[in-house]
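Case study B.
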Amino acid sequence: MATTRFAPSPTGYLHIGGLRTALYSWLWARKTKGAFKLRIEDTDLARNSAEATKKIVEAFEWVGLDYDGEVVYQSDRFDLYKGYIQQLLDEGKAYYCYMTKEELDRLREEQMARKERPRYDGRYRDFTGTPPSGVDPVVRIKAPLEGKIVFDDGIKGTITIDASEVDDFIIARSDGTPTYNFVVAIDDALMGMTDVIRGDDHLYNTPKQIIVYEALGFKLPRFYHVPMILGPDGKKLSKRHGATDVMEYKAQGYLPEALLNFLVRLGWSHGDQEIFSVDEMLEYFDPADINSSASQYNPDKLLWLNAHYIKNTPNDKLAKLLEEFGLYLLSHDKREILLDIFKERCKTLKEMAEQIKEVLETPESYDEKALKKAFKGEAAENLKAFAQALEEADNLHLPSDYHTLLERFVQEREIGFGKIGMPLRVALIGRLGGPDLSDVMSIIGRDESIARIEKLLKSLEG
RNA sequence: GGCCCCUUCAUCUAGCGGUCCAGGAUGCAAGGUUUUCAUCCUUGUCACAGGGGUUCGAGUCCCCUAGGGGUCACCA
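Model:
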């Protein structure tokens, strides 16, 4: 039974890096029949926004990650933290520091000038004199002066950090509000975390948090630091490369199961398996199997997975999803054939909606290149004749009826298929490419087919 | 720069000392299917960062070098 959490700071939207660590945490909690909690790290009152929290919850809902209990806001727990600060102060494990921000900056600059590591010098650690007046002190915790801080990371193995790397960091700002590393340790302990799965970028916070755990006598959880997701260029994931809002993937026509499948495989695998349903993830996932190296974001593979999941989504569900993209097929009489055709050819819902509209709606304009390529020689005459053939034919219903008609037409005129296929394609959907012509005509019907041909012929004359 | 972490095809990865002249997937290329495009199928392309050890034997263990990433706040 693992208790895990996702603990974002509400400074922006949820991006795929965050979603992946959330997924890993969620999988581990659900797999072990434990609990998964959502906690908002909003101790810096100046920075957080309620809007950001809403967006994160919304993204969770979209991908189907559920959390146990209410969302925990650290801003609601300041009294609790203050109690612990006082406790450490009373026990002599923390102390007031009267250095101002300016003094601190100056110290840092001097240290850097001497090519030293910037670091608090501990000048108030054992201070017993009269404190300077007019300074609101911060509270610093006493970090060990020597030795090593060692912990066992579930992904990276034993991590050893020298005590000299960690200074007496601030646990309460001069305005009395507690800081991140302090409250995270308290909340993780109080909320009963057994496994803390978080981004690599928190690796250096862990020794600090361990100091808090030890000062307060809390039991340590197991830590897992998952490597970052890099951009396709191997650099830090940037906005233009995928560090966008998870909800943007929804807007672009991605299915949540595709996104989750993509993310779970980024840094984790189970043999040669590529396709994982959530149930399969739950069956096989173990955070101990997460890779220790960073991985690059690969949009092509996400697209491939999305195409796969679209193909395997039932039509009624697709029809519902497509409504987000302005396509309303739920009560359309050609719904099944349309979806059957297009779910095989599209990589995103957005693309699918666009292509289906292309069939359903009379083209407003025609692709310049297609026009040039299709209308050489007798093309216009052929097209006119084909409209005539459509007019005269009986029993045009199924795609096969149109197919037979086309075949006979080509035979009788002794022309290659392209001579009628290309112009007809432009007339029907405005461009080359696209689905089978017999299918298209069967879907839109004889009259609309003829109307589209006439529209194109007319525009050629003008 | 100090410290920490990482390093198998272009990319995601399999591999946990011999079964690897390194497997799967994406991408790319070619061919097939398709009246077009896409899908689909087949085939191909492409890697153990470099150098030292340890060992009968190393992609797998150790060390060094190089490269990459992270981190050094009264942000989280």
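The longest helix of chain A spans residues 437-461. The remaining cases will be described in the next quarterly update.
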